[in-house]
Specification:
Elements (H helix, E strand, L loop, with lengths): L1 H13 L1 H12 L1 H23 L3 H6 L1 H12 L5 H16 L4 H15 L3 E8 L4 H9 L3 E5 L2 E9 L4 H4 L4 H20 L12 H8 L1 H21 L4 H17 L2 H16 L4 H4 L1 H22 L11 H8 L7 H11 L3 H14 L5 H6 L9 H20 L18 H6 L4 H32 L1
Antiparallel strand pairs: 1-3, 2-3
Length: about 450
């Protein structure tokens, strides 16, 4: 059964399309991290001072606040565009064809599916009925709601962040995979323009990608055009309504969160990198939730309007302290209760790295793989910690995670920063370490008896 499980899990972890999706999310990390830093700085320079009544401080920081806004717009606000390029690049690189062209084709294909016209609604204040009637005669659309009159106009050639940001990620995955598959298939079938041998390599590569790239972009544009004509709904909205939102809705249940946390530990127990195997699920569903929370906070400047309870950073903030299995708690338990010299040696070597959530020395030094002594705490500690943090978030005790923070940030501090400086979130993270310590301790003590029997 173990061999079958590892074989299936290995195939899932090595599936080329899932690997490309995972690697594309990883490739975006420098940009999304820069955007998250910009939002986090504005929390401390604008939001917290304003809430405390220090408006003069936020006014003094206005140039820096505006600069952070530019950084946010160039990173998180357009992440779907960035992801499309990264996905096309990774697929082309895997198929050993021109990766730059592959990224550009996927980027262009995704942009070709975005609605070309943006509706702009402007409230008309202080105008009489004569002006309103004149506007109607000009053929302009007027909307009257709640005693207010709004003017609806449109602008061609604009790309809104509603499609270029986190909401467009699922469409970017869909179109990015289709366009890159067409491009790679045609490139490998040699449906290309061949140039003479004396032509510079860069020119040769560019001409070779013309036919595959053109066909890929046309197919993608057709996929975006048909829903707009037949169903009067953009492809982006179609995927968002019938694919993205249902999947992300299912991911927000306590059962889904606990199950995924358990599966990560189960893969690790059998020697497989749980986060890599489940990376397409964790990143493909929970990472967009994180970025949508970031966008919602940036728009409302309030944690009360965040759409998702659980995001990608929630796992790291509350159930991965010290690394998978909350092994920072295991290290503490070993220091206090273990009499086994090899365990204490591993703990001493691992403690400095464990503070920064690097736990390979513990995972492979104890080891945890197929270890019956520690199988139970290894499998149940992260799910229990997830359940505690999830219930604390649902109850309103702590806000949802909405900031992307480097995974090496120490426990407690990670949750504090990921929630925009919420002290209670940090306390919940530290409380989870205490709970994990209580669970690990009996098994560490039991391991002492096992050593005595072996001696």
């Amino acid at each position: 059964m173990m061999n079958s499980f590892m074989k299936i899990a290995g195939k899932i972890g090595a599936q080329k399309h899932l690997v490309a999706i995972r690697d594309a999310f990883v490739a975006m990390l420098p940009l999304t991290m820069a955007g998250s830093v910009a939002v986090l700085l504005n929390v401390f320079f604008r939001d917290i001072p304003n809430n405390l009544g220090w408006t003069s401080f936020s006014e003094a920081m206005k140039p820096l606040i505006e600069l952070n806004g530019y950084v946010y717009f160039g990173t998180i606000a357009v992440m779907a565009l960035i992801f499309a390029f990264a996905l096309g690049y990774n697929r082309a690189q895997h198929e050993k064809v021109n990766p730059i062209a592959g990224g550009l084709v996927a980027f262009g294909a995704f942009v070709a599916t975005i609605p070309q016209t943006v509706k702009i609604i402007t409230e008309l204040a202080g105008v009489d009925k004569t002006v309103i009637e004149a506007l109607k005669k000009l053929g302009l659309t007027l909307l009257q709601e709640g005693g207010k009159t709004n003017l609806e106009t449109s602008q061609w050639g604009a790309i809104t962040t509603a499609y270029a940001g986190a909401t467009g990620l699922f469409t970017a995955v869909f179109i990015g995979l289709i366009s890159s598959e067409i491009y790679c298939f045609l490139m490998n079938k040699k449906l290309i323009i061949k140039m003479p041998e004396n032509v510079p390599p860069a020119v040769n590569k560019a001409f070779a990608a013309i036919i595959p790239g053109t066909i890929a972009i046309y197919v993608s544009a057709l996929l975006g055009y048909l829903p707009a004509i037949l169903a009067h709904i953009p492809l982006n909205d179609l995927i968002s309504s019938y694919v993205q939102k249902p999947l992300m809705g299912l991911s927000q249940g306590l059962g889904s969160v606990v199950l995924l946390s358990f599966l990560v530990q189960l893969f690790w127990f059998f020697g497989l990198h749980g986060h890599n195997v489940l990376g397409p699920v964790l990143d493909g569903i929970y990472l967009p939730a994180l970025f949508e929370n970031t966008a919602a906070y940036e728009a409302s400047r309030s944690v009360e309007h965040l759409p998702y309870i659980w995001t990608r950073g929630s796992f790291d903030a509350y159930a991965q302290m010290g690394g998978s299995g909350v092994t920072i708690a295991l290290i503490i338990a070993i220091f206090i209760f273990s009499k086994r010299k090899e365990y204490r040696t591993v703990a001493q070597l691992s403690a400095p790295m464990g503070v920064f959530n690097i736990n390979e020395p513990v995972t492979f030094g104890i080891p945890m793989v197929l270890n019956p002594l520690f199988a139970i705490p290894w499998l149940i500690v992260p799910p229990i910690c997830c359940a505690i943090a999830y219930l604390a978030t649902v109850s309103g005790l702590i806000p949802p995670v909405y900031q992307q923070i480097p995974w090496i940030t120490p426990p407690g501090l990670y949750a504090f920063l990921a929630t925009g400086g919420n002290i209670m979130a940090a306390l919940v993270s530290l409380f989870n370490i205490f709970v994990a310590f209580l669970i690990w301790t009996p098994f560490v003590i039991a391991a002492n008896k096992v050593e005595a029997v072996e001696d």
